Amino acid sequence: MIVWGRDNTTALLVLNEAVRSENFAWVASRTYLTSTTHIASLCAAVELALGRGRGGKVCSISAKRGANWVIFQ
User: Which residues of the chain have pLDDT under 70?
Assistant: First the structure.
């Protein structure tokens, strides 16, 4: 999952630069689906899981649908 937000200065920027400079190999072309979420959505999901989840159970946090890299970047 790629977590993004307004002040993202971490892996997403490095990954974008690698893609632009052609120092990145695509596994299944640029249309490969990936999971993305905004940091605010992730925080809300974690808060819900902590408040409503049950011990020993797994909570899945994901967007409603995947996004391909060309559209996401």
Answer: 28-33, 63-73
Quick one: pLDDT at residue 29?
Answer: 65
Q: Spell out where the chain has E strands.
A: 2-4, 33-34, 36-38, 67-68
pLDDT at 72: 57
What SS3 class is residue 68?
Answer: strand
Q: Give CA–CA dist 8/25, Å, rounded.
A: 23
